[in-house]
Amino acid sequence: MKLLILGINYSPELIGIAVYTSQLAEGLAMRGHQIELVTAQPYYPAWKIPEGWSRFGYRRESPSANLRVIHCPLYVPAQPTGLKRLLHYASFTLAAALQILARALRTQPDHVLVVAPSLVSAPLGLLAARLTGAKSWLHVQDFEVEAAFATGLLSKDSRIGRLAERFERNILSSFDRISSISRAMRRKLAEKGIPDDRIFELRNWADLSRVMPQTGPSSLKAELGIESESVALYSGNVARKQGIADTVRPLRDCPGLTFVNCGGGPYLNELTVLALDLPNARVSRLQPIERLSEFLDLADIQVLPRTDEIVRGLLTAASAPLCLKHSRVLPQRDESH
Fold first, then answer.
1. Whole-angstrom Cα distance, residue 328 to residue 253?
2. What is the pLDDT of residues 240-256, one digit of tens each?
3. pTM of the entire predicted model
4. Which fold has domain 211-319?
């Protein structure tokens, strides 16, 4: 099989969608499939191009004999508001246009895969598929329009909001196949009018071989200066959607619980300043994969913040008897986002 992939996030980004797109491409290439991939320069979750990368240049890589990757330049806002995000995605689409069309015409792929976010680049993938007679495949990691409404980046009743919904509807109806990562998101696609025979489930995954039970307390607890009996841990992107700052503020009066944020993102500075005034909050950098087991063992509560219930859940845990080492306190969450 010859597969052409268009996705804005890819290795060397360490978290988020990049992990799954990278491993999917590498895994297929290892099995003998020919993979061409067009992506952006790394920027996530810091929303900053790292040192050693030209802001305006293209970088070509061949990680294996069957995998060829090109990183395209793009606009990366330090504080990604709604409008700036649109410009960010549009800049990637423009920078990637000639690259993906040239690769489509040269390699004549069997399938063209677009990974969303971002839907803004989806028409480019459709064009590449139709020029070559390839099947078009859209993989939905997140419903961007609904997330923008939920976080206030877009108003559903505004003209831009209505245009965004119409654009999403037209894009979804145009692809030959659409995959997503959970049953709830499959149902959401069906609610948006996609026939069942065009939808399939492609879940994200984890390498369980890297997770081993620990025999003693995590050394990270001492490194971070944590003295409380229990720890709540969030690791990942610190953006408006996650609501981490709102989660931390009510914990000021919960001395038995320390909240640890490990990650990066546009709201990390805000969270770092907030943590300076909270004796039971810590902000840490992303930990290397080699310390994954130790890192997971640090936490009594793994936080997946998406709704206001997470704050109530943490406060309940903090006020309850703190015998939480082998329990979970998680709010119900809507898997559609």
1. 21
2. 655 566 666 666 667 78
3. 0.80
4. Rossmann fold (3.40.50)
